[in-house]
Amino acid sequence: MKFFSCKIFLVFGLLFGASISAQEAQKEKLQGMIDATLDVIYSDAHTTLSVNEKQAKVREKLESSYDLDVMIRYAIGKNWRRMNKREQLEVLDLVKQLVLKAYVSGLDGKVRPLVTFGELTDIGKARIEIESTMVLDTKTYYILYRLRQMDSGWQIYDIVVENVSMSSNYRRQIDDHFRKGSAADLIVRLKDLLSKDEINEDTKI
Amino acid sequence: MKTLKFKLLLAWTFLVGLLTVTTLTAQVSNLAEDEAFFCEEVDESADVYDPFESVNRFTFLFNDFVFSNAVQPLVDTYTATTPDPVEEGASNFFHNLSYPVRLASNLLQCRLKSAWVETSRFAINSTVGIVGILTPADDYEGLGPIKYEDVGQVFGAWGIGEGPYLVLPLLGPSNLRDLAGFFGDRAVNPLKEPFSAVDDWKWEWQLALSGSGYIARSPQIIERYKQLKGSSIDPYSSLRSGYAQYRRGAVAE
């Protein structure tokens, strides 16, 4: 009986340990992905690349580690059902491009930021949070990555910069848009935003 | 023998069938779970009470016009003609001048350690750092830059509700509580009215000081604003949600 109990504890211990190390592995994976994207933006070999080319390379790196659709779908929320299949796919791709454009443009031309990863917290419901800080232009930004275990593995579903959740922010905007506008209008708006060469180029509001 | 083979085949078929059904059920259940996850309500901290939305949206457009056509050219000229170290020095100088606001805000929240850090930083940066242009306090252990505190945050920490969201002409996003905090900031700042500690403090000088401070802070603000505008489906909604989340986070910390 004693032997049997020991075996049960051992099995549970191993399972628990495996779960913890699987979560910890996510931190390393995230760190590796961030480093890889920063390498694309700041590597000497990529100085001749245009912003668009850098975006494409960053997208490649990101998508080799994570399914970006998860974050965009989470940001779209229930509004997903207001679009037909074609619109869903188009919006998914356009929002993805917009987020990548903002990320690359926000860093391009600056000194490579110093990114440090902090604690990993299990927040329940198959979700974890990974803390990090980014020192950019002498300013320190606190960034929190939220991940959830999906059918396709651990996926990033939200990034919180200085208490501002990217998913919540886009969700509010898309909610507000659908109060008056349609999916077709949303696609037009997204295309308009993406047609600007620079994220800083004056945009009609 | 034949019966045994048949029984084995039957058992095997049953097992495979059971596994298939279980896998499919699990997949359907996972998909349903994922779907529920995508549709769940996001953080409530992004909900904002905005009863004056139409007026706010109009003021937002007005501010955008002023930013793009008046502030932006001024800031562009300032950044083009000012070397980066001078720009940074000016920004440091004006940040140092707002020490009374940070001190009072920390004390009013009983954050004695933060009040001490702010005071030490002010003392070191004002003297060794030549009236706050440089920040030598950064090099001292435990005296690195800390989060900016203002009177609006104090009101939040005291449990006062934020009230309706407001977009103030030229000043940008706010709410009723932060608007009161804005006047509170002025009240605890000895360089500003109504309780200015400087005798014969002419309005021209005050205006020049405030204007210079505004310009010195603007390059960063303008850059962030343009990034927000360029990556937002609805810039008004994005700024409102971002402002609310940021301020609520600052109050909660």
Structure, described:
The complex is a heterodimer of chains A (205) and B (253). Chain A has one domain: Nuclear Transport Factor 2, Chain: A, CATH 3.10.450. In chain A, 57% of the residues lie in helices and 21% in strands. By secondary structure, chain A is an alpha+beta fold. Helix content of chain B is 68%, strand content 3%. In chain B, 25% of the residues are buried. Chain B is mostly helical. Chain B contains nine helices and two strands, in the order ααααααββααα. Chain B is elongated, with a radius of gyration of 28 Å. Chain B has two domains: 40 residues; 204 residues, no CATH class. In chain B, strands 1-2 form a two-stranded antiparallel sheet. The longest helix of chain B is centred in the first third of the chain and has 38 residues. In chain B, helix 4 runs antiparallel to helix 5.
In short:
The complex is a heterodimer of chains A (205) and B (253). Chain A is of the alpha+beta class.
Got a strand count of chain A? Answer: 5
- What is the count of structural domains of chain A? 1
- Indicate the low-confidence ranges of chain B by residue numbers: none
The first-level CATH class name of chain A: Alpha Beta
CATH architecture of chain A: Roll
Q: Tell me the fraction of residues in β-strands of chain B, as a range.
A: under 5%
Give the tally of structural domains of chain B.
Answer: 2
What general outline of chain A do the C-alpha atoms trace?
globular
Q: How do the strands line up in the largest sheet of chain A?
A: 1-2-3-4-5
- The multimeric state of the shown protein is heterodimer
CATH structural fold name of chain A:
Nuclear Transport Factor 2, Chain: A
Largest sheet of chain B: 2 strands, antiparallel
From the alpha-carbon coordinates, what is the Rg of chain B to the nearest angstrom? 28 Å
Question: What's the average pLDDT of chain A?
Answer: 86
Most extensive interface:
A-B, 44 and 39 residues
Order of helices and strands of chain A: HHHHEEEEEHH
